Amino acid sequence: MHSRFYSTKQLLRLIPLTALLLSACNLNNINTQGSGSDTDVQWQAQKNALNKISQYETRGAFAYIEESNKVYARFYWRDKGEETYRLLLTNPLGTTELDLNVTPGVIEMTDNKGQKYYSDNPVEMIYQLTGMVIPLKNLRAWLIGLPGDATNFELDSHHLLKSVRWPAPEGDWVVTYQAYDSSVTPNLPQRLELRQGQRLIKLKMDNWDIQ
């Protein structure tokens, strides 16, 4: 089924923003290393704890890198479950570059000129407006350290998600967890990368608010 996409202005790509440091250290981080079984007791406990999270918010640094499109921004993600979430990208001055709000039955995106767009497919809408391909459905799970729809994944020696491979029509998405934040319970990702061929998305979470 083709998605509906409505616009009253010419589509504009995001202007790449000043690069933000994605590799800053944190005293509370846990570096992922080693391997573990996806059936072990500790992983099951971690997964159960993550599945009990009904709402969460996080913010930090975002980078989208491919040959023809590079975007660097601050990001804010709020997830309220029930297909309700928000992705906000801002430039270093705090000005909105992209504001996506998804609720049941209504998907709205505001660009950096304040123009609003509506669609039934947020992934396609972001691509049409910015050229970025972001796997939003699974990203909601990947952000907190769950495999989402993926069945091919690996654990680290701390019984946390280390990597995920998820098949997609344009090629597999490979998610790599580089560090976790041990200051929150359950431990949540602090740095991760998503790759699909030459396409790379880097996320660094500064803090978490979970319920």
TrEMBL record:
One annotated GO biological process: protein transport
Keyword check for Transcription regulation: no
Residues of the signal peptide: 1-29
A GO CC annotation given for this chain: cell outer membrane
UniProt entry keywords in alphabetical sequence: Cell outer membrane, Chaperone, Lipoprotein, Membrane, Palmitate, Protein transport, Signal, Transport
Membrane topology summary: Lipid-anchor
CDD domains per UniProt: LolB
Pfam families registered for this protein in UniProt: LolB
Family classification: Belongs to the LolB family.
Function per UniProt: Plays a critical role in the incorporation of lipoproteins in the outer membrane after they are released by the LolA protein.
Subunit record text: Monomer.
Protein name from the UniProt record: Outer-membrane lipoprotein LolB
Species classification: Bacteria, Pseudomonadati, Pseudomonadota, Gammaproteobacteria, Enterobacterales
